[in-house]
Amino acid sequence: RALRILYVMRLARHSLGLQTLGLTVRRCTREFGLLLLFLCVAMALFSPLVYLAESELGAKQEFTSVPTSYWWAVISMTTVGYGDMVPRSIPGQVVALSSILSGILLMAFPVTSIFHTFSRSYSELKEQQQR
């Protein structure tokens, strides 16, 4: 399997798309780092909040621990939303709404910068290739 990855990396020399992707990743390390940092901080904020909001509910609890709440926060903030854990209480739903909205905003800001860098890198590489 590792050899397949090396083979694909060798083919990247001939693929404009893979070259652009590699160049974009190298140029956007700060943006990727900030995205990861912001998501980690938001998860550290919203996971205990949803756990506390749902632990007050006397009915069936899906949020049995803070680590399971972290799972929920990752899935919700990245807008995957498996639906395996759902806040049932009103305070839990308010926390969920704010978590999802902040996840959308946190993902949108760095992604636009990364896309701009990708399109600029693609144009540069295409121009170099045509020379």
Topology:
Layout: H1 2-11, H2 16-27, H3 29-55, H4 66-77, H5 90-130
Helix pairs in contact: 2-5, 3-4, 3-5
Give a description of the structure.
Residues 1-124 form the Ion transport domain. It is found in: Cell membrane. With 131 residues, this protein is an all-alpha fold. It has one domain (30-130): Helix Hairpins. The chain is 78% helix and 0% strand. It has 5 helices and no strands. It has helices spanning 2-11, 16-27, 29-55, 66-77, 90-130. α2 (16-27) crosses α5, α3 (29-55) packs across α4 and α3 (29-55) runs antiparallel to α5 (90-130). It is elongated, with a radius of gyration of 20 Å. The model has no long low-confidence stretch (mean pLDDT 87).
Short description:
Pfam families: Ion_trans. The protein has 131 residues and is mainly alpha-helical.
Largest sheet at a glance?
none
How much helix is in the residues? over 70%
Number of domains: 1
CATH class: Mainly Alpha
Would you count the extended β strands for me? Answer: 0
Terminal-residue CA separation = 36 Å
Characteristics:
131 residues; single chain; Helix Hairpins; mainly alpha; 0% strand
